[in-house]
Amino acid sequence: MDKCNANGGKMYRNIPQHENGLAVTVGDAEDDYSEELPQLGELFKFRNGCCSTKLIKKRLPILTWLPNYNRQYLVEDIVAGLTVGLTVIPQGIAYAVVAGLEPQYGLYSAFMGCFVYFVFGSCKDITIGPTAIMSLMVQIHVANLGPPFAMLSAFLAGCIILILGLLNLGFLVQFISMPVTAGFTSAAAITIASGQVKSLLGLPGKSNEFLDSWENVIHNIHQTKLWDSLLGIGTIVVLLLMMQLKNLEGSWKTFGKYISLSRNAIVVIGGTVLAYCLSTDGVAPFQLTGNVTSGLPPVQLPPFSAVVHNQTYSFTDMVSELGTSVIALPLIAILESIAIAKAFSKGKSIDATQEMIALGLCNIVGSFFSSMPVTGSFTRSAVNNSSGVRTPAGGITTGIIVLLALGLLAGTFFYIPKTVLAAVIIAAMFFMVEFHAAAEIWRTKKIDIIPFFVTLITCLLLGLEYGMVIGIGVNMCFVLYQTSRPTIRHYIERVGNVDMLVVVPDQSLVYSSAEYLKARVVKLSQQNPVELVVIDGYAVNYIDSTVAKILAGIIEDLKIQERPVVFWNWQRAVQHTAFRLDAELFVPRFKSGSSLDEIAKCWSLDNRIEA
Which residues does the UniProt record annotate as the domain STAS (predicted)? Predict the structure, then answer.
């Protein structure tokens, strides 16, 4: 085989031409380098056999684990479900307050997700229900508009999550990097804790935004109520001390573990009993939660219209009021739930599509029971895992506990001091501020601290949704800059009697890096008096049409300098992209399977032939 005319092991019918001392051959390649249309069906994974037994079991995980359920698991699942139930009741009430809703809506949001996830969930540890971040994001839009907007948010978020899951588009959350996620979570925790300071100190006012919360505290600090402050701060101290009981050893280990897991319920019960005992003629020394509607929520369609302050909102008006949260809520819900599933997977693969379908259905079904948007709770999932849950059946016990609380205990919720609920939330927020993540980011890649702090600061000053978008935007700018400035190494190689400039880009090339590549190659060629320019593409797995056009421009620019160009070691698919642009120009210039010695010999031979 004549290696001077070889390209990737294939020969081309030769039409010899000579250009600047380098022989080129053009003609029809034996390879067919035409391109097929993109297979969009592969992206969305449309497949036949949508009703196959295997797929049904995959989409209904209960059909896989329930037939193999061991009766020995029952006690462990009940204990775990009971422990989670005692945790979710005070948290649900507290998160409803964060969302600007009446306390019962936190409990309405805490049971249906357990039942739906029991059927559709694939991770035994996850518990679905109200969370601090989701409550805060809901509060921004519904605090002054009422529960119908929270229910519609749940329905719309569920529909979007379900659609994204069915279309296999969960990869969208991968565009939210770890620094952005850590900054968002930390900002949410700080904002939530700031919003509870007024209740902790017994101050008047209603604000949950970071700046507004502290402005309200400073403005009303002279109205601080002594007994509320003492009870609230004391509750935080007790919660932090009880958390440490899980580290007890010996015969006290099990006792300490369950006291630690039940700490929220214990302090709420203790605060309620204290407020009841100190009440005189129904007046307590603390601000109380007040009346909580007892009984189960009505089963009805989510509200597609609402009347608020004598103003009627149509469906489009309601969606307009919800604004960017229609998109932000589903993405944050997916991010939280998938992250929790991965954290507790213990090396097992996670079916992200199924988790999204389950989460979407939890929100959709929950919206029929007056639920606000829900997602996986890391705190309660950790409690579930620590309690030894064995299957998703633990969620049934949790759901039943919440229903019993709604039906039998709603009257007692009247005496729950607001400062105790504020203490429960603030104590939980201490561990959501990701100081360790900031240190880890700084240690690993210092430039990544920029999107972390940008997200953190903008979320605090502008709100969570805008902060998240700005953080993602800044992070994407970094990514785009990196793709537009590939590292381009070069060296001068003298092979035989030929001086070569070898240029080596270190990554795939896209439109944003095309002009940079061209400028570097032309400049290096001007700075180094060589006879031949070789562009080594061993690391280039992809180019687009813009890059192909720029490569043609490099050939023309170096032709003016009377320096021929050879493209060496480029992938076959990359070559074909260039061939489709201009086969006559590119086919003879791509050399694969040849060494620099062979390229030099061919160049020298062609020079002699021309002479």
Answer: 499-559
Tell me the backbone φ, ψ of residue 303, rounded to 5 degrees: -70, 120
- Structural tokens at position 37: 């249309």
**Alpha carbons within 13 A on the beta-carbon side of 35:** 15
* 3-state secondary structure (DSSP) of residue 567: strand
Percent of the chain with pLDDT over 70: 89
Q: Give the pair of three-digit tokens for residue 365.
A: 């079904």
pTM (two decimals): 0.76
SS (H, E, C) 74-114: HHHHHHHHHHHHHHHHHHHHHHHHHCCCCCHHHHHHHHHHH
Per residue in 362-381, pLDDT (tens digit) is 999 999 999 999 999 887 88
Q: CB-hemisphere CA count at 13 Å for 511?
A: 3
Task: Tell me if 599 sits within 8 A of 564, measured CB to CB.
Answer: no
Tokens 């970071």 correspond to 210
Q: How many CB atoms lie within 10 A of CB 172?
A: 12
Name every residue whose Cβ is closer than 8 Å to that of residue 273 and which is 6 or more positions away in sequence. Answer: none
> And the tokens for 88?
């979710």
b/e string for 225-247 if b means 16 or more Cβ within 10 A?
bebbeebbeebbebbeebbebee
Q: Is the pLDDT of residue 39 over 80?
A: no
The closest alpha carbon to 587, from 107, 10, 1, 2, belongs to 10
Q: Cα separation of 452 and 461, whole Å?
A: 14
pLDDT tens digits, one per residue of 147-156: 999 999 999 9
- Do 572 and 604 form a contact (C-beta atoms < 8 A)? no
